Amino acid sequence: MAELTAQLVSVDRMLWSGPASIVTAQTIEGEIGVLPGHEPFLGQLKENGVVTIRPISGDRIVAAVQGGFLSVQGDKVTVLADYAIFADEVDSAEAESGLEAQDEDVKHRSEAELAAVRRNESR
């Protein structure tokens, strides 16, 4: 079975790296799903998006991302985000309160975190 080598990286840490069957991400042009054999691609991530990775073994990985890029070269997929957090690391109460913040970056981050939590719960 063909597989991807996927990496999810934020500015401050490597969140995940390993073999995957599919990676989906929200870009400024829409949602993209990357399977083995995908054409080379470079896309800008949506400001308050969600990335989902299906590892070859293990549970689906869902993360909130804010800004950054998705790169596909051969069977290697790299998601490089300005900010990223796993859905199961999100404090939902804190994210909900962030929606009321005056700072637009905080609002966008909270929107992305809550979207990731919802997607993670919809398994």
From TrEMBL:
Keyword Protease recorded: no
Biased composition (Basic and acidic residues): 104-123
Keywords attached to this entry: ATP synthesis, Cell membrane, CF(1), Hydrogen ion transport, Hydrolase, Ion transport, Membrane, Transport
InterPro entries per UniProt: ATP_synth_F1_dsu/esu, ATP_synth_F1_dsu/esu_N, ATPsynth_dsu/esu_N
Superkingdom to which the source organism belongs: Bacteria
Region (Disordered): 95-123
Entry annotated with the keyword Nucleus: no
Location(s), subcellular: Cell membrane
GO molecular function: ATP binding; hydrolase activity; proton-transporting ATP synthase activity, rotational mechanism
Membrane topology reported for the UniProt record: Peripheral membrane protein
Domain ATP synthase F1 complex delta/epsilon subunit N-terminal: 5-84
Family of this protein: Belongs to the ATPase epsilon chain family.
Subunit structure: F-type ATPases have 2 components, CF(1) - the catalytic core - and CF(0) - the membrane proton channel. CF(1) has five subunits: alpha(3), beta(3), gamma(1), delta(1), epsilon(1). CF(0) has three main subunits: a, b and c.
Function statement: Produces ATP from ADP in the presence of a proton gradient across the membrane.
Name of the protein in its database record: ATP synthase epsilon chain
Species in which this protein is naturally found: Corynebacterium imitans
Lineage: Bacteria, Bacillati, Actinomycetota, Actinomycetes, Mycobacteriales
